[in-house]
Amino acid sequence: AQRVTQPEKLLSVFKGAPVELKCNYSYSGSPELFWYVQYSRQRLQLLLRHISRESIKGFTADLNKGETSFHLKKPFAQEEDSAMYYCALSGRTSGSRLTFGEGTQLTVNP
Amino acid sequence: DGGITQSPKYLFRKEGQNVTLSCEQNLNHDAMYWYRQDPGQGLRLIYYSQIVNDFQKGDIAEGYSVSREKKESFPLTVTSAQKNPTAFYLCASSIPASGSYNEQFFGPGTRLTVL
Lengths: 110, 115
What we know:
Chain A is mainly beta and 110 residues long.
């Protein structure tokens, strides 16, 4: 079975501080990992995926297979980063379906 | 925004009644999905369809039913058998299938309240 865990329901930081949203997964194979974001009054949308290894809006995430983690990081948080963040996993055997974590509500204070 | 539309935005239902939530997409995507979003529980997959006239149960299908008669439409019926139907429901679509992943695009959601 595949599972995604986000241990922090709420995370609050000050503007300009580093931020790390934690994501751990369990999957017996090679997963694809993603971060989705939902800003206030907007639709849920893809932020980044591990395969593309890119930085989006200053965020990066590295897949650590040894620790089965895919933490989302940003060195200097901005107020506009305040949103709900979901980590998600897709497995080779699960086709196009995703398994989501519980979500972390990030608040960046001025 | 376009792409994927869900209607209505808010829906109220009396206990014991069935209700159908609409989801339409004009992205020409093959796959469509229904999720339920509850605080602290993330998104949980109810049903998904990878092609017209075919669909599979997700993790929490009990008390729900779907149909996929047209590529662009994937309505979800919340039946009276669903024990805790009050929730926010999200529809999504993606290009394919065939074992490879593609980005899922989400609708604006429908908030269902059972009175």
